[in-house]
Design brief:
Blueprint lengths: L1 H27 L4 E2 L9 E7 L3 H5 L8 E8 L5 E4 L11 E4 L4 H37 L1
Antiparallel strand pairs: 1-5, 2-3, 4-5
Helix pairs in contact: 1-3
Amino acid sequence: MLKNIFAIAGTALSAQTIRMNTTASNLANAGSVSPTEAEAFRAKRPVFRALVDQADLNAGFNTLGGVKVKEVVDSTEPVRKVHDPGNPEANDEGFIFLSNVNEVTEMVEMVAASRSFQNNVEVVTTARQLMMRTLDITKA
């Protein structure tokens, strides 16, 4: 039973780490510009999937009930087109394309991922403490 708790919390910690890393990448690229819309940086979002099927066990996961990152997708928000003919990245018409990263949204994502990560650390810590108390009781 405790093994399942550690495994489930471990998958959540891994998923939240990926979420924090994609958010950090988005913030690092928030100010990037491109000469074309196709080349503009688009914010990344991890898509989570619950591990609830027997196929998940067959795929190598230790227990059901965890979570994994199914994929990382690009945000569908439009990029911004700005007329800036003096910019060295400007196209022939003088336009640049800015990333679609919203810094406020990214900070909310970072705080939410950090809190979720901390909650799962607390789950692991509490399960460990319960396991240690159980061992202490059996010694008495």
